[in-house]
Structures are given as structure tokens and as C-alpha cells.
Amino acid sequence: MLKKVCVHALNKIKKLERRIKSIDEDIEYLKDENLSLTQITELENYRDQLSEEMGQLQRIYDSYCKQKTSKQYELVFRGKKVEVALVPELLADPLNNFISKVSPLGQKLEDVNEGDVLTVQTSRDRIRYKVSKITTYLSN
Hints:
By secondary structure, the protein is of the alpha+beta class. Helices cover 47% and strands 27% of the residues.
């Protein structure tokens, strides 16, 4: 699962790179045409925000994906087994079972053992998970 998380991170970084390049092209066009300084400033600010996010993702990738070990959790939820990985917040993607470390479930998983039962309060419900397996694996 670590490999999937790292591919996900690289895809997000590449997507941001493309978006930043597109914004740079828009800024150059607006400057060449002597158009709205307000629009140029807004685009530059937006580009700077995306650049900051991309830098954070790159740092996360460098520290998280280049580490030697990671944990994967097998949870039982309503009788079904689900494998999840804890990831930094910017890489969270619950639909792919990449759970943010700051999410309610992520916080509970930090200090669990196999066999533990977790209760997580969501905005609508209390959800119970049983930790059936914790696997530590090496990255490739």
C-alpha cells in the first residue's frame, strides 16, 4: 500500500506542477496584453498558494515515501475487512483507504494493537472498528 500512497503523492505533485505552469502562462498573457493588474495579482497569489502546497507535498513525499517502513491496518467494519494506511493530511484519500493521521480514525490508529476495538465518533454516527491485523512492511 505504501507504493500506492507514493504514486498518489507523485500524481498530486505533477497535477500541481501542470496547474502552476498554466497559471504562469495566463499571467504572462495578461501582462503582455496590459490587462487587469488585479487579475494578475490574484493569479500570482493563487500560484504562490499552489507552489506552497506543492512544496509541502514534496517534503511529505521525501520523508514519507523514502522511509524504510510503514504500517498497514486491517480493520473489520460491519463484518467486512478493510485495509487502510495512515498518511499525512495532504495525501489523505479515504476513497482509496489513505486515512489522514489527523482524522478521528487516524488518531485512534496511532496507538492500537491487534484485537483492539476502536470507537470513532463522526458527525452523524459512532462507528466501531476491530483491528484484526497490523502489518509493518518495507518500501520498495
